[in-house]
Amino acid sequence: MLRRALLAVAASEQIRGFVTATPATRAVVDRFVAGESIGDAVRVARSLREDGLLVTLDYLGEDTTDAAQAAAVGTQYTQLLGKLAAEGLTEDGAVEVSVKPTALGLLLGSAGAADGITARGERTAAEHVERIVVAAQDAGTTVTIDAEDHRTTDAALRLANSLRPRFGSVGTVVQAGLRRTEADVRELAAPGVRVRLCKGAYAEPVSEAFTARHDVDKSYARCLRILFQGPGYPMVATHDPRLIAITRSLGLRRSPDSFEYQMLYGVRADEQRRLAQTGARVRVYVPYGGDWYGYLVRRLAERPANLLFFLRSLGSSS
Ligand code: FDA
After folding, report:
1. Domain assignments of the chain as residue spans, ordered by start
2. How far is the CA of 134 from the centre of ligand 1 (A)?
3. HSE (CB half, 13 Å, CA atoms) of 120?
4. Residue ranges of the chain with per-residue pLDDT less than 50
């Protein structure tokens, strides 16, 4: 309830203006975001690699309706991949990238309303994602296509499905919170397919999504079982101790390199290292860039303790 309310309030431009202009926000942003530049992203990726962790880098931004901006995001990723390869970080997919279709033009021509996705939007996002996938392949690494709100789900799945025959390593993300996901996961549990399972970070209508936390968790556990029984490569994106325990027991029947855990930069860092020390593959999702507002709000909405930390830092600055 609090989460939905917070996500709704945060959509106001006035609130965005206030939060982004407040200097004390910086401390909270720094906990979850690597920095603004490619240099910052590479520095954090290198340090996580030194701790035995895998990394996926996300250039922050979403919901673009400007073609030049979408192209610039694509170029940012190809430059990032070039730099990561030059630093020797991409070998065997150790550091990969995550991309958001709406940052790469999916909403072009739709006046910002995702349910009106146009052929132009889909074509533009596909062109930029393919450009990034080619750069990633040249660098020896992979791309995962993030999941956004339910209005973009079909387009994001189509995008991954159309690239997979040529670039088998393209990863897809599904959200256990959506009612449709169990059926999607059955289709995706195919040989070699990389599927990231998360709970889902967006405020969704009841018609599309489970509202009770335990229903989301039960859906997550069902999807996990389907993925682990299949021949694909599950990427288990959660900080939830119970779901991590279920994954551990499902994983006993597979080789440790046939799946991975994924967690966010700045969330349960000790647990990330602890799991990696047991020999598990653990990947940290690291966002960077200046457009951090939407990402930060989703992190605050997920956990009252994070919101309190943020409000306290605002209080101490005044
Ligand atoms: P839940 O929120 O129930 O938290 C379980 C426990 O984990 C909490 O009790 C707390 O201990 C800890 N915890 C969780 N979040 C925390 C936080 N922010 N700060 C501190 N502690 C926290 N979503 C999406 O819609 N599309 C996507 O593409 C992705 N991609 C993605 C990648 C990766 C690597 C991760 C880990 C997550 C995503 N997500 C996402 C976000 C995901 O959908 C979800 O919103 C968050 O992971 C929080 O859900 P949990 O599964 O962690 O459980």
Report:
1. 34-291
2. 29
3. 10
4. 318
| CB-defined site of ligand 1, < 6 Å | 146-147, 173, 175, 198-202, 237-240, 262-264, 267-268, 285, 299, 302-303, 306
Tens of pLDDT along 31-74? Answer: 999 999 999 999 999 999 999 999 999 999 999 999 999 999 99
Instruction: For the domain made up of 34-291, give the CATH fold.
Output: TIM Barrel (3.20.20)
Distance from residue 118's CA to the centre of ligand 1 (Å): 30
Which residue is closest in CA terms to ligand 1's atom 5? Answer: 240
Q: How far is the CA of 120 from the centre of ligand 1 (A)?
A: 32
Q: Hey, which of 239, 262, 292 would you mutate to test ligand 1's pocket, going by the most ligand atoms within 8 Å of its Cβ? A: 239
